[in-house]
């Protein structure tokens, strides 16, 4: 990998073909206003109410309070100079119980946001689902139930009918791997089930829901549709850890990417896993052609053979010799891993891989809670290194079209509450005051040089 530079002009010059530049957020993490205006109850409303479950006992409110302060967000995005803004729609704002008619006040809110972005010259790039489905649907089985795919297709149709006259670019389901493995497998995200391999049916139901949503969006005139998944480069701790690498790569990467890009699941039986609950034309629906494939990347993963008896044949271990983010050893900083991952996807899927969008990339570091100007040089170094890795992958022949920083704002970081801060903009969780960090200025300078 080439030596990264922090100089915006030199880094921008690496991209001989123009790249689109974006920043991202998600609804539950930034909107606040969890009651009123017809909003329903999501699985995260239920989860934050569990005593002791959120590290700092926060509840996502007020946080950025973007439901009321979305104009502030648009002003920041305009100042930043991004081409697109990735945000997510709150299912429970639009369809409070996950069935039945839409809530007009929820639709109106996203109308205001979309129109404001367009007026500012920013392309709205919404995500239909970012982990916050209605609690009523979870009570009926959630993603363990095949019926969830039908409910999601209905929700996608509502969104497409209302916003499709102005929105042509869409993400469908954010990181199905996280919902399956962490939400239903390990219980570290809502709905906090601990089913281990019993969660595998949620993979199929999410991918089926995605495919049905693609068709609904396409019917409404969408021109650019893709799915953003969290992917990781899997490495062995020891030379004889190849089987552990293959197993974890299957569970984190291939079981999600293969059906989308090849129309088939990998051979699960070889790994001692049960078959997916496939029916009829499911695989054709799942493999409905995409306009782009979204890759969310934060860190590589090092694995080794399990040292203790248990259901998992591998262990995740710290990556030797790598610095880490605020999450500690679980999140090593290794930009070269992004380059390797992108090249691996190109080699693995060939011409079946559509153009790639980096749907999320960013890092959290310890920062003050009170409103202040943050000189976050460590974040600038992280971003510069990973953007340089994208340039290296493009030079190696990978078709990458867009790069997205996670996140525009400090936000509610799920079970970690407000203890982890990813934002280009510092947010005081009590007052919602926004203060751009040094990384905001750096990213703005990079975009300006890239657009020059």
From TrEMBL:
Transmembrane segments: none annotated. The keyword Hydrolase applies. Its EC number is 3.2.1.21. It catalyses: Hydrolysis of terminal, non-reducing beta-D-glucosyl residues with release of beta-D-glucose. This is Beta-glucosidase. One of its GO terms (molecular function) is beta-glucosidase activity. Keywords: Carbohydrate metabolism, Cellulose degradation, Glycosidase, Hydrolase, Polysaccharide degradation. Signal peptide: none annotated. Belongs to the glycosyl hydrolase 1 family. PANTHER family: GLYCOSYL HYDROLASE, LP05116P.
